[in-house]
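Practice record 12: protein with magnesium ion.
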Amino acid sequence: MKSRNTFQIKAAAFLLSAVGLLGAADANAQEVPKPPKMTPEMTEFWEPEVKVVQPGKTASDAPADALVLFDGKNLDQWVSTNDPASPAKWTVENGAFTVKKGTGNIQTKQSFEDYQLHIEWKIPAKITGKGQGRGNSGLFLASTGEGDAGYELQILDSYNNRTYANGQAGSIYKQHPPLKNAMRQPGEWNTYDIIFTAPRFKADGSLFTPARVTVLHNGVVVQNDTQLKGPTQYIGLPEYKQHGKAPIKLQDHGDPSEPISYRNIWIREL
Ligand code: MG
C-alpha cells in the first residue's frame, strides 16, 4: 500500500505542477519545521517526585500519613453534635466505643472535604428488633447541621434482616442501595473503606458538582463512585444546600435495639 500511495502522491504533484498550481504554491511556501521525532522519554513526568507513605501492616491499619480518629483509647477527636463545645458522651471500653443511647450524635472535631476513611463497626451478638429498628446507626460523610443533617451512609444489621434496599447497610440512605449485601453476622466486626468527594458550589450557592462516594464493605465494593442527590432525607426528596468543609458524624439512632460499637477509625485528606 505504501508504494502505491507514494506513486499516487507523486502523480498528483506532477499534474499540479503541469498546470502551474504547484509552482505558485512553492513561491509562497514557508519552511515548515518538521515535528520532533517522538521518544519514550518525551511522555515521562519526573517532577515533582511522588512522596513516600509508609502503609499499614494490613489494609485495616492506618498509613503513616493518616489522622487517627479513634485508636481504642479515648474520644478526644470527637464532640457532641448537639453541643460541639462538649465532649462526645459515648462509652469507650476494650479498645472500642459504643453508642450511648439518648446522648445524641457525635462528630469529629475537625472538618474535612475530600478524604479516604476507614472505620470498623459491630452489631452486638445478641441484637434484637427488626428492619430499621435493628442495630441502626449511620455514618454521615459530611454533617451539614444538627441532628441527622448530612449525607448518611447507612449502618444497620443487614444480616438476615430485610428492609427497604436503599435503607440497608451500605446504602446511601433513601438514595442508592448497595451493589451487594456484604454483611457479617452479629458479633463480628464489619469494615467500611470510603472514598468521599465533597460537593462543590458556585459563588451564588447553587450546585456546581455533586458529592461522590465509593464504599467497600468488608472488602466488597457496594458503592462505586456513586453520585449523591443531596443530603439524605427520612421524608421527602434530597436537595443540595451550600456548605464548606464539614465534620464526619456518627448516629445515635434512637431505636430500642442494643447499641452498636466502633473501632479503628482513621482518615486521609485527599
Ligand atoms: Mg441510620
